[in-house]
């Protein structure tokens, strides 16, 4: 294990015959004696300070210059393995397949060393979240282990293929995908477009508060996701997360309607321009539908897993330089989603550039950075000119969803007309002609 | 509790509020099964209770950090510097890099499920009356949320979040304190040192003492929530006595030849005995479908009635456990029966059903069957513990200085690093600057105050021994009241009020400022201070102004005034006879001294004139 210490400290440790996790007695120049376990350094901080976990549990850093002598008391205290437990399954026939993509949906703390260990095996999930025993037989697999911000359209393809394989070969009641929250809504949208028919849902879930704390939202989210996977009548790609700051009701959002709207709150995900699809009570185990229209469970599995990597999402801002858009043509992009202002506007200086991009065979979509409401290019002159230049309005589709959808569309076809047609088609409830009063948080009467 | 501008891990002000909260939300905490294991009885205990927690917040002094909806910010600089200063004052060894830790606490008092704490220094010392008391550790930590309600039937506990996150300095002394009085003195002196830095909150609960008490052959018992210094010696004395008595009980059991195996757990349903009982508790429980369960305790006759602390018998220990584990109202035991409406005949009938013999005792509980059973289980396990003397536990201090069972003692500290906060390097130049900014020692402050305000040696010493040395100077300079008056109120008056049973904990500093201002401006006479303080203690939510006006309106009616005036006139009969109408002025003066601020002077003058004329003409 990398200790993270300065050369001076590493020498001191080596010459004292001690290493990481050893129990030692440290004598300081001011006469103080400290008894504790040597810990590896956190990645940041002063490399010249030795980190000791004292007998009272506290960690302290002691400067190398202050250390007179280190005596070994006991070799390496190591983490105890998770106690194996034979679980008694009470769920009848239902099964859920967990796919791990990264982040730690669950982790536990080793109190001897203070280290946090992620886990994802079915045994470990049962052990940490005993309620799962009553809900389903769990199988788990770690597909990859990356931060959610490191996801790419290629990863979406891999997830989509895995989903197809799992439904064909293992036939679970549903699939739960553990995913970092930052880009969860991108991945959930991607799967919504890629998986056309399936025998069950694909439920994304994660944690806003790390699972190494007793207050983590992860266990409740996992329980809610598993319940959705088992009980929900629909077969869509959805996100199941806390519905409020309370540890009670979870909301199930369509991947194509969800957006992470808060950096840290556990109810960060919201459905935008739509109601959530369902609500789940993890305690009564009730899954209640909030919408009546949805894709039902199907006997067949139909997956279109390809995404084009040559699509970009660009945010317009006042003063944007038109040549920035030229860059995408030079780099060989074939699709561009622009987040315009208001009803879907950009500086009129950019319009001729857009016209030339479209003439060169690039599909340009205009969405709105307002997020709520629909794009309408017929109201103001700039909009009309954009339409004339060949831009496609995204309707009330979220900019990120328009980006994912265009990536998927251009992964299916390179024929421009066909691609345009496919893009305008409502594929996974990502688009609607009606926007209702209650779809906007301003309707909640906060004030 | 530190009076910093902001909380330890966010920028909320460190203000405690009394008004209604603005919002609330609900949370649960969970420990993974493997983490509980057999390792940590306290954790298991809280987990088994399956509680949920309601948190109440204010918009102005609670933010997403306290709600556990946002990672902590970097630790408050002001608080760290105060903790470092304290370390320097007691000559402790400061660590070179401070690491923030998470200490698992799952009673819900922290929204995160842990308390953030950091060790600042080790190995200091203070000198209290010539004896060196070692300081083992100095930690800086966040205060927990305040419990405001508990609803056992709904299994919920409500906490208010305003206090959560206020910085606290925790000072742990070495185990060298040998007497109840010494415990008070050490706590008092450490409190003085903390207060000498300024920026430490004053008032009830801002300096709290947790006492670890064990006598020879006893066990480590932690007592929480001792709110004021004068209670410490009594708590220590009572706890030492409790442990002594428990050891005596152990020895008595041995003398009686009893063994743990003799105490069988075989509860008997004795509901039938209480069909026509006069006991209200029994009747109401049985009417609701509950049962009467009894447990025989072989050879325990007389033991349950042994008084462990004033007014608390061994039976109370059993009842404490039954209440906590089974949430029953209480239990009855044979050493206290017949009583509480339970008749001699009923007692005899229970004994018959249990098959008790001359030296046996029994415990009786009325409740739903499942709860009653759980209660007797708890009683049984406490009885088994009696064979070993003193059980290790965490107890809470009662206001009368006795203690009650709170929860089992937590296991080894469950601590792990707070990964959301970076370690803080402490460099020499910072320590050198803080060293220059250290406050004068309390002894020096005392000397200075004594000379500056001309306090007698005795009064000055009393002030030093009270908790109010530093408040004194502020009160004098800010209100203009006489130093001797302020000193004597802070020492004698408050102490006398407490002895009279007045809940002086309700009196806050703002109240004192208000009272002394009123005295200094002549609004009330200094003689009225005890009554005013008493009224404040009874109505702490009112402002001093409204208390004063309330007192004057309610406590002195015209007829009361007339009575007072008549009394004074009759006391000064000679004066009135000698001076006639000219006695008005001295009589008026005497009356005003008694009623100033309580009724207006014109009315007084009228009454005095009237009564004086009556007296002269009669």
From TrEMBL, chain A:
Domain spans labelled Asparaginase/glutaminase C-terminal: 310-423
Upper lineage: Archaea, Thermoproteota, Thermoprotei, Thermofilales, Thermofilaceae
Residue stretches making up the L-asparaginase N-terminal domain: 96-286
Family affiliation: Belongs to the asparaginase 1 family. GatD subfamily.
SMART domains membership: Asparaginase (SM00870)
Domain GatD N-terminal positions: 20-73
Gene Ontology process terms (BP): amino acid metabolic process; regulation of translational fidelity; translation
Keywords per UniProt: ATP-binding, Ligase, Nucleotide-binding, Protein biosynthesis, Transferase
Catalytic residue positions: 104, 181, 182, 260
PROSITE patterns in the cross-refs: ASN_GLN_ASE_2, ASN_GLN_ASE_3
Domain of life: Archaea
Entries under NCBIfam families matching the protein: asnASE_I, gatD_arch, PRK04183.1
Name under which the protein is recorded: Glutamyl-tRNA(Gln) amidotransferase subunit D
Enzyme class: ligase
Ranges in a coiled coil: none
InterPro entries listed in its UniProt record: AsnA_fam (IPR006033), Asp/glu_Ase-like_sf (IPR036152), Asparaginase/glutaminase-like (IPR006034), Asparaginase/glutaminase_AS2 (IPR027475), Asparaginase_C (IPR040919), GatD (IPR011878), GatD_N (IPR040918), GatD_N_sf (IPR037222)
Quaternary structure, from the entry: Heterodimer of GatD and GatE.
A Pfam match: GatD_N
Catalysed reactions, semicolon-separated: L-glutamyl-tRNA(Gln) + L-glutamine + ATP + H2O = L-glutaminyl-tRNA(Gln) + L-glutamate + ADP + phosphate + H(+)
CDD domains referenced in this protein's UniProt entry, alphabetically: GatD
Documented EC number(s): 6.3.5.-
Function: Allows the formation of correctly charged Gln-tRNA(Gln) through the transamidation of misacylated Glu-tRNA(Gln) in organisms which lack glutaminyl-tRNA synthetase. The reaction takes place in the presence of glutamine and ATP through an activated gamma-phospho-Glu-tRNA(Gln). The GatDE system is specific for glutamate and does not act on aspartate.
MF (Gene Ontology): asparaginase activity; ATP binding; glutaminyl-tRNA synthase (glutamine-hydrolyzing) activity; transferase activity
The encoding gene: gatD
TrEMBL record, chain B:
Record's catalysed reaction(s): L-glutamyl-tRNA(Gln) + L-glutamine + ATP + H2O = L-glutaminyl-tRNA(Gln) + L-glutamate + ADP + phosphate + H(+)
EC number(s) on file: 6.3.5.-
Cytoplasm keyword on record: no
InterPro entries listed in its UniProt record: Asn/Gln-tRNA_amidoTrfase_suB/E (IPR017959), Asn/Gln-tRNA_Trfase_suB/E_cat (IPR006075), Asn/Gln_amidotransferase (IPR018027), Asn/Gln_tRNA_amidoTrase-B-like (IPR003789), GAD-like_sf (IPR004115), GAD_dom (IPR029351), GatB_C_1 (IPR042114), GatB_Yqey_C_2 (IPR023168)
UniProtKB keywords: ATP-binding, Ligase, Nucleotide-binding, Protein biosynthesis, Transferase
GO BP term (any one): translation
Spans annotated as Disordered: 394-413
MF (Gene Ontology): aminoacyl-tRNA ligase activity; ATP binding; glutaminyl-tRNA synthase (glutamine-hydrolyzing) activity; transferase activity
Pfam family, one: GatB_N
GO cellular component: cytoplasm
KW Ligase (keyword) present: yes
Enzyme class: ligase
Domain Asn/Gln amidotransferase: 470-612
Domain of life: Archaea
Gene3D superfamilies hit by this protein: 1.10.10.410, GAD-like domain (3.30.1360.30), GatB domain, N-terminal subdomain (1.10.150.380)
Function: Allows the formation of correctly charged Gln-tRNA(Gln) through the transamidation of misacylated Glu-tRNA(Gln) in organisms which lack glutaminyl-tRNA synthetase. The reaction takes place in the presence of glutamine and ATP through an activated gamma-phospho-Glu-tRNA(Gln). The GatDE system is specific for glutamate and does not act on aspartate.
Cross-referenced PANTHER family: GLUTAMYL-TRNA GLN AMIDOTRANSFERASE SUBUNIT B MITOCHONDRIAL AND PROKARYOTIC PET112-RELATED (PTHR11659), GLUTAMYL-TRNA(GLN) AMIDOTRANSFERASE SUBUNIT E (PTHR11659:SF2)
Subunit description: Heterodimer of GatD and GatE.
UniProt family annotation: Belongs to the GatB/GatE family. GatE subfamily.
Protein name: Glutamyl-tRNA(Gln) amidotransferase subunit E
Gene transcribed to yield this protein: gatE
